[in-house]
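input
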Amino acid sequence: MPNRFIRLLPALFLVAGVAFAATKPAVTKKLDVPPIDYKHRTLANGLELYSVQDRSTPTVAIHVWYRVGSKSDPEGRSGFAHLFEHIMFKSTAHMPAEMMDRLTEDVGGFNNAGTNDDYTVYYEVVPSNYLQTLLWAEGERLGSLTVDEANFKSERDVVKEEYRFRVLAPTYGRFFNAIAKNSFTVHPYRRPGIGSIEELDASTVEDVVAFHKTFYRPDNAVMIIVGDFDQKQLDTWVDRYLGTIARPTTPIPRVTVQEPVRTEAKRVVEHGPNVPLPAVAITWLAPSASSPDAAALNVADSILSGGESSRLYQSLVYRKQLAQQVNSSADLREDLGLFAVTSIMAGGKSVEEGEKALMAELDALIKTPVGAAELEKAKNLLLTRLLRDRETNDGKASALGEAIVVKHDAAEVNKGLASVQAVTAADVQRVLKKYVAGGKPVVITYTAEPAKGGAQ
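output
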């Protein structure tokens, strides 16, 4: 879930957990936000370059987005995209392992990477006089990465330990890891991006070399440069360090599997060790991030769980005291998404009570249009996050990369704010009727493992 920024608005007052609208209806002020002015060109080898000049600070963000995510993992080899997120920090023909840390951290910058269902992104932020060095380094990673037995085994162990830390160790790690697995039937979104220990153990260095050769190539990459630079000099360096990398002649495999429409509701029971309180999740299939309905679904999500004044928190946690944690999610991806509500119950409360209460709040939002003040608050939470994301060079690059790779349209980076502002109460009702009331839910309950002999 994205971070939520809570903002108190004049049109909304919270008294004893109840929202009261001010006498005058809230008025949405159109935000006048300067657009992200990007330039774009495609190199002869297929690499796409987007650049945004911003000389307000002497820094530059370098992003490389590869169109390979966990959905691209070979069947039976989940976690490969995640594995390469780690291997890409190892050695190249001219760089020792972990040199990216030295090139960035030792000059006051930083670097990191992230694996998503739809992409893997590598990024650095450094003083702008180190731009040439980092472009050289990214060319090294793309053109001459060392993929050998030693790097494979060391990073596989790191990923396995991360799985233990993020999935097996936390009380509800297995619960959240099970949501996608049970919500998709044939689309590879059903596989956990973090991978699995069994499938990682079954992999070989030959598998990994083949994966790298297939996806890590210039015509599968988008480079985004934002910050203090000279455009002509940037183009010269990119051509020198990345434009000379050969473009393979083999096609890039893409996921074409279509998730079927759910024809019936489904219930799944999951168990885990040391589960002190039961939990429940309800999911519905949702459209892709590029859908015209995306903004309204995000606003609905914000109404339901955007901060402690949100509907789910006020109802389940504050007033009814049924849950100790509650959430909603409009998880919209490149191919399709999920709309979900989750609740970890309070002591002595059952998952049946949680499911009933979650559905009651959804039904109320579907049947009765949200009030002007509550709608304004929910939209402002989203807008605040989007604006804060754009305050830095790194944030601008991330927003642009999401528009290009996930939404297939760079121009979306400048349309998102307007899309959120344009959402009406009728839009919120319409999308919830379409995807929630008109869809088939998957209900996932999570409780402690049964005791020996079958007793709970």
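quick obs: DSSP finds 15 helices and 13 strands in the chain.
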